[in-house]
Specification:
This protein is an alpha/beta fold. Helices cover 43% and strands 21% of the residues. The strands form three sheets. Strands 4-3-5-12-6 form a five-stranded mixed beta sheet, covered by helices on one side. Strands 9-8-10-7-11 form a five-stranded mixed beta sheet, sandwiched between helices. It has a two-stranded antiparallel ribbon with strand order 1-2. The radius of gyration is 22 Å and the shape is globular. The termini are far apart.
């Protein structure tokens, strides 16, 4: 049996849709459908019911899903054991985190480490979702909430302050003549967006996006006010902070990794550098000077 077919079926079962499974594995819908059909052919059982606009897992499919989860966990454990056995500093270390935080803050501070340690390569994986460290989707992750998974080590490295920012021309307008730029519905649950929705009230948002960089660029262009991380917005000359009472809620930034993965010398080097640069920038994270 082809494990890849089982992998695509599990993604379909877990996400509930072809689009979700395709996005998870970065392929098109037809690839997922073809792989699932191939698995059904290999096993000789029907795993999904193909409805007009959705897929429903059959009873046999549910049993296969439970076993597939165990297979996936077992493969991840084997990969992790192999990576942990590598005691050299020559390896790829994959760091996941919010895309804008990685590109605007971490990349220029972390990637020079590669020159100091020949053979070390650092891959930055910008992802809004929480990657599964137990499944080996990344070696390290920066998260805005403390993890609860078993076997995961969590280190609080900073507190992110947020502020309401806009262009100088926009900030000079009267409060009742402002437009607001906020996250879309997929991020309505995050604390700073809940705060912003209360401030906006019935006025709502002139622009909504799931991308922080889009909001910052739009605010800089004078399209409205946006809630932005202080460490990013305070270094944009075009942006001015608007005093608010109370201010937007701050967020804790956590560096997380699997306990076994953290024993790798290469991973430890990256952990130490991330800890170093975030500690040095703690005032900047809160909106002060470095």
């Amino acid at each position: 049996m082809d494990w890849n077919n089982l992998k695509f079926f599990l993604a379909l079962a877990e996400t509930g849709s072809l689009s979700g499974a395709a996005k998870q594995h970065r392929v098109d819908h037809s690839t997922v459908a073809r792989r699932v059909e191939a698995l059904e052919g290999e096993l000789g059982v029907r795993l999904v019911e193909r409805l007009a606009r959705s897929y429903r897992i059959t009873a046999e499919g549910e049993r296969v899903r439970e076993q597939a989860r165990k297979v996936k966990a077992g493969i991840a454990e084997i990969v992790r054991l192999a990576r942990d056995a590598d005691i050299s500093a020559e390896r790829i270390v994959r760091v996941s985190g919010p895309p804008t935080l990685l590109s605007r803050f971490l990349a220029p501070r972390l990637l020079p480490l590669q020159k100091e340690h020949p053979g070390l390569r650092i891959d930055l994986l910008g992802d809004m979702r929480q990657v599964d460290l137990n499944q080996g989707e990344a070696d390290l992750a920066l998260r805005l909430m403390r993890p609860r998974e078993k076997g995961i080590v969590a280190r609080r490295v900073a507190v992110l302050g947020y502020g309401l920012y806009g262009s100088r021309e926009r900030v000079a307008r009267r409060a009742n003549d402002q437009d607001y730029l906020g996250f879309d519905e997929s991020l309505d649950h995050v604390p700073q967006q809940r705060w912003f929705k209360t401030l906006a009230g019935d006025r709502g948002f002139a622009l909504r996006s799931n991308d922080l960089l889009t909001l910052m660029t739009s605010a800089r262009a004078g399209l409205g006010l946006a809630v932005l991380p202080c460490i990013m917005a305070s270094h944009e000359p075009e942006l001015v902070r608007v005093p608010t009472e109370p201010p937007p809620p701050s967020r804790e930034l956590w560096l997380v990794f699997h306990r076994d993965v953290g024993r790798s010398p290469a991973v430890r080097v990256v952990i130490d550098r991330i800890t170093e640069v975030t500690t040095a920038a703690r005032k900047a994270f809160l909106g002060g000077q470095r």
